[in-house]
Amino acid sequence: MSTSAQNNSEVKQHFAKLFELYESNLNGRKKLLAHAYRKTAIDRLAELSFPTRRTEDWKYTSVARLLQPSYQLGLPFQMEKETLDQYSIPGLESIKLVFSNGVFNADLSDLESELPNGVVLCKLDEALAREDLKELAEAHFKPDAEEDTNPFTAINTAFSRHGFFIHVPKGVVVDKPFEFIYLTHSDEKIPVFSAPRMIVVAETSSEVSVIERYHAIGDDTVSEPYFTNTVNRIAVGANARVHHYKIQEESLNAFQVTNTEVRQHRDSIYSSYVTDLGGKIIRNNLSILLKDSNTETNMYGIYLPKGDQHIDNQTFVDHAHPHCNSNELYKGIINDRGRGVFNGKVLVRQDAQKTNAFQQNSSLVLSKKGTMDSKPQLEIFADDVKCSHGATIGQLDEAAVYYLKARGLNDSKARALLQYAFIGEVIEKIPIDSIKQYVEGVVQNKLND
């Protein structure tokens, strides 16, 4: 057995033992439908292999370091409201769902908030147990043994004990965004593992915003590596609107893999806004299937790796029907020994005539040891389309730096201003002012750090 295969086997055995420990504490809940699906997922994991550098979509990102620690399931930690307030977005009115080490904290959450008529916000296990929601929740949760070959999705399904389900009925607009706040803290020398799961079903002509936020409570206290393995599944009904934000400010000891699957129906709009600032190794997989005509898809991303951070964005848009539009803009700034990866694929199928697809990835590499790997891709099988893609990798314009210095800015401020102007094109796409201002602030802080 090769070293890679042996390590693969050891990692899967470790997660299987973790599942046995988790299962032993369930008592009567073993009989729940949710647990049957989780058991199927952990059994499925035994048949799968983790990606290696030989796997095309993972050639720039090794999971060996990520899988090396002997992770334990996260235990909740005590937290006061004053601590949570330190991590709030000023001016944002939201429905908060707070998690400590992956465990839902009901005391600090707004689970009892008054929701628009018919909107459901509940734990995933509850949705699977309710007769009126069971079929819908099953459709977006149960593992598909034939199609799903992603071991990280299998692990998430097996351990998604604190997943949540959101259902927005036909014609309902939810004014306040749902804000999922994932906080990690460990004052013990234990590598912590968590598996957030979010399912959003927006029915015909509805509208909803969801925000994912990831923080460590004090970088000094999270001295051990920890792993957040997230899965999101989002269904956007006909003429519905879903705005999806991710703001990642993890500890520099954090590993994170996020798999987001989106299904869009006729005349719908899905918009994604990703900001990655923290973490040691971050991998975002965003996959979007356009299931009918006249859809609009927007994907915007910011990544700022420095030190030895590694941030990898993988996107896939499947134009399977005619008259659909997709817009994609990812920008990053790489410093020190940081590494950025962008692999964006747009597939235009034969029947997808009148497709408009725009994809652009632009990066600044500001140090000799920094690395950026960019691979925008178009596969077009239709002939009546407007599609473009491109990638640029460059450095700051020294003439512009000199111009700003001549007008009174010192060298560091001049460079930070130019970097922010470069990133600002993406930040301006954020529609909620309080989130936009918050992202502006944290980006400027990192650029000035």
Description:
The relative contact order is 0.09. The protein folds into 2 domains: 3-292, no CATH class; 398-449, no CATH class. The strands form 2 sheets. Strands 1, 4, 5, 7, 8, 10, 12, 14, 16, 18 and 20 form an 11-stranded mixed sheet that branches. The chain is globular. With 449 residues, the protein is of the alpha/beta class. Helices cover 24% and strands 36% of the residues. A hairpin with a 2-residue loop joins strand 2 (95-100) and strand 3 (103-105).
Topology readout:
Blueprint: H1 3-24, H2 33-45, H3 64-67, E1 72-73, H4 81-85, E2 95-100, E3 103-105, E4 120-123, H5 124-129, H6 134-141, H7 151-159, E5 164-168, E6 178-184, E7 192-194, E8 197-202, E9 207-216, E10 226-236, E11 241-249, E12 254-264, E13 269-276, E14 281-290, E15 296-303, E16 310-319, E17 325-334, E18 339-348, E19 356-365, E20 371-380, E21 386-394, H8 398-406, H9 411-427, H10 433-448
Parallel strand pairs: 1-7, 2-6, 5-8, 6-9, 7-10, 8-10, 9-11, 10-12, 11-13, 12-14, 13-15, 14-16, 15-17, 16-18, 17-19, 18-20, 19-21
Antiparallel strand pairs: 2-3, 4-5
Helix pairs in contact: 2-7, 8-9, 9-10
Large-scale geometry:
globular
Distance between the termini: 46 Å
Number of helices: 10
How many structurally independent domains? 2
The low-pLDDT segments are none
- Which whole number gives the mean pLDDT? 92
Q: Which structural class best describes the helix and strand composition?
A: alpha/beta
> Helicity range of the residues?
10-25%
Let me know the number of strands: 21
> Roughly what fraction of the amino acids lie in strands?
35-45%
**Sheet bearing the most strands, described?**
11 strands, mixed
What is the radius of gyration?
22 Å
